[in-house]
User: Fold Large ribosomal subunit protein uL10 from Novosphingobium ginsenosidimutans.
Amino acid sequence: MDRSQKAESVASLNAVFNEVGVVVVTRNLGLSVAQSTQLRTKIREAGASYKVAKNRLAKLAIQDTDYAGIGDLLTGPTAIAASVDPVAAAKAVVEFAKTNDKIEIVGGSMGTQVLTPEGVKALASMPSLDELRATLIGLVQAPATKIAQLSTAPAAKLARVFGAYAKAA
Assistant:
């Protein structure tokens, strides 16, 4: 890798760190190509990205970003999973790590808050941004539905009462 490629890699990583909501640092403990492809596919489906980068270049890229605190985690054969959704990357990596012991969660960061491996797992157990939006929309729509039912209920009751009087007479 020559100087221009390194500068381009640092700039690319820096752009990622400035856009994302969460970063998860993983350690590769001997993933096969098929396993690595499976992990990348799962992460991509979750709306996140997964990148293996030289630690030295990644440390340069995190300078002057909210993720400067993860510099100590970048030792050994590491890779970085990142997503705009604060839960997507963590959820995908933790899910994969449950079924594969060749990947280790080293830690992560959500903005300036550095996370331990347990913190990343706790973050993964939270509902995703889309799930929260769906819940919120459901909660907002529920009262409107109930109001509509309440406003039509008296009229329906009145119609049944009139119908009963008509049959009795």
